[in-house]
Design a protein that fits this description.
The chain has 95 residues and is α+β, with helices and mostly antiparallel strands. The chain has two helices and six strands; from the N terminus they run E-H-E-H-E-E-E-E.
Length: 95
């Protein structure tokens, strides 16, 4: 097994909510070293669901400026996981 945590956090935005309701897709921030097979296994094991497909993308960090000080946010990896029909992951139940 790998020595890093694959799934860091779920992404909760307006776009991801629409994807979840319309296409049964859930988005996660994952470790940059993780591949699709590892992400699929981690999601299936953690949330006890069946995964249809996994899409990944590298997201570049934005350059930010505060006065004269220029900095850059970290680069990260996003995974969009499509679940099998009938499967569901609820992050915020009862809110």
């Amino acid at each position: 097994m790998k020595d890093y945590v694959l799934i860091k956090r779920p992404l909760n935005t307006e776009k991801t909510n629409i994807q979840q309701e319309t296409f049964n897709q859930v988005s996660f921030e994952v470790d940059r070293r993780a591949n699709r097979v590892e992400i699929r296994k981690a999601v299936e094991k953690t949330f006890n669901v069946k995964v249809a497909s996994v899409q990944t993308m590298q997201v570049k960090g934005k350059v930010k400026q505060r006065g004269r000080v220029v900095g850059k946010r970290k680069d990260w990896k996003k995974a969009i996981v499509k679940l099998m029909p009938g499967e569901r992951i609820d992050f915020f139940e009862g809110v």
